[in-house]
Design brief:
single chain, alpha/beta, Rossmann fold, eight-stranded mixed β-sheet, two-stranded antiparallel ribbon, 34% helix, globular
Length: 285
Amino acid sequence: MPARDIELVCPNLRLAALEWGDPALPKLLALHGWLDNAASFDALVPLLCGNFHIVAIDFPGHGRSDWRAPGAWYHTVDYLSDALAAADALGWRRFGMLGHSLGAAVASMIAGACPERVERLLLIEGLGPITGAGDDAAKQLGRALAERANVNAKAPRVFASLEEATAARMRAGDLSGGAARALVERGIKPVDGGLTWSTDPRLMLASPVRYVEEQILAVLREIRAPTGLILAQPEQPYMPRAAMDNRVVQVAGIEVTRIAGTHHLHMENPQPVADALLKFRAAVV
């Protein structure tokens, strides 16, 4: 089933999105990873949309959505408000969530903070956001402020062709050509001399403040929705096995499936990911 391009008018900005499936089916809000966009679900969703009505948004600053206002930061907590605003714009009071990486972090935090709104939680390569040590707060803040002061110092990179941009995305994200091209086609715009990324350069700034792990564990313990988590094997270095296992045990009844692949396994080899998600769906319906 082909995707339908839609726009969602939210209180503070406009979100671009892709929509698949019959609106009468169970609702699923899909949230992509950092520096990706809604096209990251292009390969996976056709394998799911016979069972769900799916809307995948471009987060602010990504893909074809608006950038945040001048002077704003891209805080993780603001993405939670963005996702809820998207659901409100769709008229969805209660819905399922499908998230990858950053999107999985956002979805799991919403499920813990607003359990009355989330009926199903499907996560790929993420369960809560990256955290920091409390003792590192001053160093983290200083780095973020320094980067923010110089955010406009570097000229945007311009590519001569879509192929050149795709090759750069492949190198940056360890992606195959097909997966990288899907993201690039939705994440690039024309400028004088060629093409450049449509993503907001402020997305590359260090976070000024990070949660500490105890805060994330407290939120995860409040998740009430049936939860399925897919993790790539081998594990990503930013979330060691022991740390992820400690998060997993906070979520009552969570089902974890480990599949050989890379961080973008839902793009590179979507069939086993879809099979695992649909198996989990059958178990909870």
